[in-house]
Design goal:
- The protein is α/β, with parallel strands linked by helices.
- It has a single domain, classed as Rossmann fold.
- 36% of the residues lie in helices and 12% in strands.
- The chain has an eight-stranded mixed sheet, with helices on both faces.
- A hairpin with a 4-residue loop joins strand 7 and strand 8.
- The longest helix is centred in the last third of the chain and has 22 residues.
Length: 355
């Protein structure tokens, strides 16, 4: 590829990148295989579930044999399969949970200790890897990794699926306090084109509500991601290709967003455009490339959240897990709701006066 098509392609930058995949399900399997295809050799998978009989037809690293005797742990089974595909891969499996807002830990000492251990496991993995992929099923499971990748200045690639839609994005890069980024600070063009990498939003920046338990009061079939089978392969491939294109840019994680699909001649990556988000609609076989700026009231990556986490550590996280409105009160979203309600009251009052 480098010799015949792209002489400037830096394959060493790809192969030396250590990737952490959070979720070893449909997306995790496809991303792992695509990373191996690009020559990535350091891959760690984290998951806490087992392989069920419905998994192998959709999750490309599992076979029917992995379902027997109650099912193997997904991360372990995926790593075993990766080693069979290429014995030279340095793949590791971690069987662990990710504590989530809306899923209360409670006050039981044993439960708190388990949550603390899970947080320490995830944080250590984030610190020891270069890139983190968020490939889980629920919105709230992405909150802690989003916070940790922001706090430790790691590249974060996020992929999420709907029935016939998908979203792939790179989170904005959050440099350590006091660090000069050197990234351009001018936003040019339309549709979010040219937003510097350290000013891009994360998965939660476009929300005005804190993450909560999205599986509560849902039947088992509603708790699973139901999607067209090809969606995960498309999204998994795009997530991998987005990372590789980002690694080829001179600014790496600080690369500004590209949104114009007509002409990629101005991109500084030898592989072309580096968008902030890729949102796909399989029913129309269409992709759009929106971009958005970081939200100063974001519940995951805003300065106030990162500052409190650095000051309080696990105690801060425990409040977020156990207290429903804690993050909204902390970031000012609760005040934003109140101000919005006041505006609506004033509008109604004006209308009554006119009558």
């Amino acid at each position: 590829m480098r010799w015949r098509l792209i002489p400037s392609l830096d394959l060493e930058a790809v192969s030396s990148t250590k990737c952490l995949l959070l979720g070893a399900g449909t997306l995790g399997c496809n991303v792992a295989r695509c990373l191996m295809g690009w020559g990535v050799r350091h891959i760690t998978l984290l998951d806490n579930s087992t392989v069920s009989y419905s998994n192998p037809v959709r999750q490309s690293l599992f076979t029917f044999h992995d379902c027997s005797s109650g099912g193997k742990h997904k991360a372990k089974a995926a790593v075993e399969s990766m080693r069979l595909i290429f014995p030279g891969v340095k793949a590791e499996a971690v069987d662990s949970s990710i504590p989530m807002p809306g899923h209360s830990v409670g006050t039981n000492a044993e439960a708190i200790q388990k949550a603390r251990k899970d947080v320490e496991t995830v944080e250590k993995l984030v610190q020891t890897h270069d890139v983190v992929f968020l490939l889980m099923d629920t919105r709230e499971s992405r909150w802690l990794p989003t916070l940790l990748t922001s706090a430790h200045s790691k590249i974060c690639i996020n992929a999420a699926l709907g029935f016939d839609t998908y979203m792939v994005m790179r989170h904005g890069f959050r440099p350590q306090p006091g660090t000069e980024t050197g990234s351009p600070g001018v936003i040019v063009g339309g549709c979010g084109s040219g937003i510097p990498g350290d000013q891009l939003g994360c998965y939660f920046c476009s929300d005005v509500v804190a993450p909560t338990d999205s599986t509560r009061d849902r039947t088992l079939d509603q708790q699973c991601t139901v999607s067209r089978p090809g969606i995960s392969m498309v999204a998994g491939a795009l997530a991998t290709e987005l990372l590789v294109s980002l690694l080829q840019h001179p600014l790496k994680a600080l690369a500004p967003s590209d949104s114009h699909t007509e002409d990629d001649s101005e991109s500084e990556s030898c592989l072309g455009l580096i968008p902030h988000q890729i949102r796909g609609f399989m029913s129309r076989f269409q992709n759009v490339l929106p971009a958005s700026q970081a939200f100063d009231k974001c519940t995951a990556c805003s300065p106030v959240v990162l500052s409190r986490y650095r000051e309080e550590g696990f105690d801060f996280l425990l409040k977020a897990f156990n207290t429903p409105n804690f993050l909204e009160d902390l970031t000012g979203l609760s005040q934003l709701y109140a101000e919005t309600d006041d505006d609506q009251v004033w509008e109604l009052s004006d209308g009554e006066d006119d009558m």
